[in-house]
Structures are given as C-alpha cells and as structure tokens.
Protein: Flagellar hook-associated protein 1
Amino acid sequence: MSGGSLSIALSGLNSAQTGLDTVSQNVANANTAGYLKETTIFSNQQTPNSPIGDGVTSAVVQSTNSFGRQLTLSASAGKAYANQLQSLLASAQASFNEPSSSGISEQLNTMYNNFSALSSTPTQAASYDQVVASAKNVATTINQAAQNLTSVYNQASSSAATLTQTINSQLNQVAAINTQIASSSSTPGASNTLIDQQNQIVDQLASELGVTPISGNSGQTTLLVGGVALVQGGHVSQIAFTPSNNPISSSTSTQASVTLTASGTRVPVTGGELGATLTMMNSKLPTFGEYLNSLSTTLANQVNNQLANGASATTTSGDPLFVPSSGTTINAATISVNPTVANNPQLIAASSKPYSPGSGSNAQAIANQQTATNGAIAGWASSVSSVGLAVQSASSLTASATNIYNQAYSASQAVSGVSINTQMVNLVNYQQMYQASAKVISTVAATLQSLIQNV
Structure:
C-alpha cells in the first residue's frame, strides 16, 4: 500500500513539474510571434478494480481558436492591402505635383496668359517667344509627371517580383514543417514548437498575399489563395509574377498577374501587400496614366486645331505647336513643342484668316480655352480631384482595416495569447501541487522508516 502511495505521489510530482515547465515556456514566449499558449491538462489515472486510482497523468496542449485565427489572418491581409495601396497611391499623387507653383496647372495658365498677351501685341517678337517658352514648360512638366508615374509603376513591379520570391521561399518552409509534423504526430505535444514556427510563417503569408490555412487531422496545414492550393502536405506549388505594360508609354494594356509556375493557372490574389500591388498596376495606374495622356491629347488637339484656323506672316495655315517627340502619337511621354516653331516662334498663327499684321484674334481664341469647360485645364482639374479622392479613400480604408485587425487580434489573443497574470496564478498552483506531492512522499517515507524501526 505504501508503494502505491509513493507511486501516486510521484505522478503528482511529475505532473506538477510539467505544469511548472509549461508556465516557464509560456512566459518565455509571451512576445513570440505565432506562439500559441500551452496548457497542462491533468487526467485521473484509473485502472480496473482499483478503488483508489493510480494517480494523475498530464499532457500539454495548445490553446487554439480556429475561427478567431481565421478572422485575424483575414484582417491582417486587409490591413496590409490597405497600407500598401495607400503608400502606392500617395506616390502616384506626388507624381502630379499638384497643387504647386511648378505643377501642370500653373504651367498651363502661364501659357494661356501668354497667348492672351500675344493677342494684344501680335507685332512684338518677344510675345511669340514667351508663348513658345511657356509651351515648352507645359510639355516638359507633363513629360516629368509621366516619368514620375512610370517610376511608381517600376516600384510596384519590382516590389511584386521581389515579394513573389520571398513568398515562394516561405511556402517551401511551410511544406518542410508539414513533413516534420507528420513524422512527429504520433507523439503528443511533440509538434507544438513546429506548429508555432509554421504559424509565424503563415502570419507573414497572410499579410503578403492573403492565404487561407486549413489544418488537417495530422496537424499539417494546407494553404489556399482564392481556392488555389499553394501548399498541400509536403508539396508546394510555386508562383510567378507577370507585370503589366507601362500604362504611360504602351498603346496596349496587359494585366499584371500571379500564376502557378508549373501550370500557368491564375492565382486570384486579392488581399495582402501583393493584392494591393496588383490593384495598383491593373486599375489605378492605368487610370492615372490615362489622365495624363488625355490631358496631352486634349491640349494638343485644341491648340493645334485652332492654330490651323489662323494665319501668320509667312503661312496661310498655322503650324502645330505640339507634336510627338517620337512616333506618331501624342501622349504624356511624347508631347513636345514643334521644333520648327521653336526655331521660328513667329510661325504661330496669331491672326485669323486672312492674315492681318495687327490681328491677334486667333491667339485670343486659344487663350479663351483657358476657361472652357471642355478645355485642358478643366479636364486636368477633374483628374487631380479624382486622384485626391482615391488617396483619401485609401486613407480611410487603412484606418478601418487597422481597427478591424486590432479587434480581431485582441479577441484571438484572449484565447491563444499568453497572460502573464494568469501564468503567475498557475505558477503558484503548480508550486503548491509540487510541494504537496513532495510532502506525501516524505510522509510515506517517514512512516515506513518508523515501521522498520519498530520491527
């Protein structure tokens, strides 16, 4: 009977030690990303025909909340998406440099004002020179905005390509851990550390491209994006990023995409940092590029068409002021001042037809485009406003997504996170359990010693 007492007390001692070890592990990893709180579970050890029992057994389990974790990962993807989109939109907005004394709007106003001045002094060579100089400034400023927007495109494309490489490496890590988990699944609790490591990687993948993890019976994790499996057990489907065409310089538009490297199957990435980059390249940048290209064609067509209706001292029909610097199409990247007119500004058809030396009526007609509701300035103002609204909307989305993530994370941590206060209470309980079990052992030992001495 004394042997049974010692065995029971020893099981209590060992279980208390397991509890103390668990507390130590939790406290040490309280701030470790991906760590799931561990809990010691005690069970009565009972054998048939034993009226008392055979002590206690202990096991260590992770505190998980699958639904809460899915919400947190989804919120993380939403937050990362909003942050990346806001950052790229802010860079695109800065490309336009509006409002600014050196921005497109101010350069357009200066050019139109110079046309107005030319209409009043059509016999002065300096008036023609000022029109050409201001037109050059307009073209150069539009060209610079196009270059700036191209830089944002290059930034987004490079970021997506680099991120794709990182993601592929992380997918390999998840699959490798799956293999390790499968080989250790027969030992209870042996895979806890592996699961923590995997969770940390999955957290990163969620913010990068919005993965959905599904846990299998053996503890392995399957990773899906829009229903497409990227990781199944130890198998990985690598992904590839294909950029879109430059929305400024290209006459045709292709969509940036993510596909499975092996099969070419499209992966519908709509969340995370990569999802935001795709949105920027496929939707926002083409729209912003069209704003600049539309401005360029509207400006060139309106000014050139009006010049064609006028005359100069040497021409019966005015030469175009704006021409493409290369190719045959005027857009934001190619708009430039006609070299022929730049070399001889008095070719500008300031007079209406037929030519009259003191007439500046055609120049005034161009100046009137400054306030036209369908003019270049009005159209550009609307475009700048639309860009501002897009940035403002992204800022609101970021604030909302951050709030949603914080709420989801707090709810998840309440279940799987480590509370130092709770661990301190557990520490006291396990310490007392250990001391009590040790006391039983010492008491039984003393009783046996007393019996031996009395024999």
Notes: The mean pLDDT is 87. The longest strand covers residues 38-44. Residues 2-63+417-454 form one domain.
